[in-house]
Amino acid sequence: MSAPMNLAVKLGPLHLKNPVLTASGTFGYGEEFEPFLDLNRLGGFVVKGLSCRPRPGNRSPRTWETPAGMLNSIGLENCGIDRFLEEKLPRLRKYRTAIIANLFGETIEEYCEVARKADAGEGLAALELNISCPNTARGGIDFGCDPEATREVVRAVRDVTSLPLMVKLTPNVTDIRPLAEAAQQGGADILSLVNTFFGMAIDIRSRRPRLSTRHGGLSGPAIKPMAIYLVDRVRAATDLPIVGIGGIRSGEDAVEFMIAGASAVQVGTGNFVDPLCSVHVLEEIETFLEKEGIQELRGLIGSLPR
Ligand SMILES: Cc1cc2nc3c(=O)[nH]c(=O)nc-3n(C[C@H](O)[C@H](O)[C@H](O)COP(=O)(O)O)c2cc1C
What we know:
By secondary structure, the chain is α/β, with parallel strands linked by helices. The chain contains eight helices and 16 strands. The chain has helices spanning 81-92, 108-120, 147-158, 177-186, 224-237, 251-260, 270-273, 277-292; strands at residues 9-11, 14-16, 20-22, 44-46, 63-66, 69-72, 98-103, 126-130, 165-169, 190-193, 197-199, 202-203, 208-209, 216-219, 242-245, 262-267.
């Protein structure tokens, strides 16, 4: 029998036993998926975005299924960092997998406050910064759409944590490269991309938006080619390790992101279709490597000619 394949990956300071993570907001706080899969199988999971204080999120309807994905406007509903650290994290620590806290705020001070608290919480492998949020001090333009704000917020958070810092980029910009560079200059260790694309759907009979907030974020298979394009762009602009996200629901999808330059991937909307999607992605990566006679996952990552 052949030796088990080594799927471990290094993303700067973050070491994962395999390259499959689950994406923030699609996997609860991990515990919700305990009945369906052994969380130890995963390279890690990213918990629902956390803020300084609990948030109720937007009112319904806040999801809408589209032909190849979904729109959501959950509004970053979450239990708040304090409750996460007190109630949820202690129960998750038993798992031998990377637990990554996704964090956000509306001001740099809020980002720092939530990051400082997360940094003190025992058992987190890394922080992922969601910068697709309005900067209320700068007229509401998203941090992640403005290179200067991106640099500032990443630098400020970098100063309050020694945990590996992953910065999650928004695709809703004309050119993603200056944002990737700004995150690197601010001190990011890893870039994850992408968050959802702005989108909208209308009920043609009532002539009303399908979502209570009018607009939402599009995810799922529809965004995969756009996400891969952005991975390719970011790879050309920085040398930081990349985590690819966008419409991944099979091992072959994941391999495509890896060839483009992603060292690891996150499975998002796929978890809603099949709670075991992430495990299937992992198994299918292994099958692909075996069939192609590839010994080392490393040989695949970024193998697309530049
Ligand atoms: C219902 C829902 C909630 C989400 N919540 C968050 C969140 O709290 N923080 C965040 O950074 N991304 C959030 N996302 C974005 C996902 O993590 C992911 O970046 C995006 O859905 C693209 O991946 P996918 O096509 O595999 O779903 C959310 C996505 C969905 C569908």
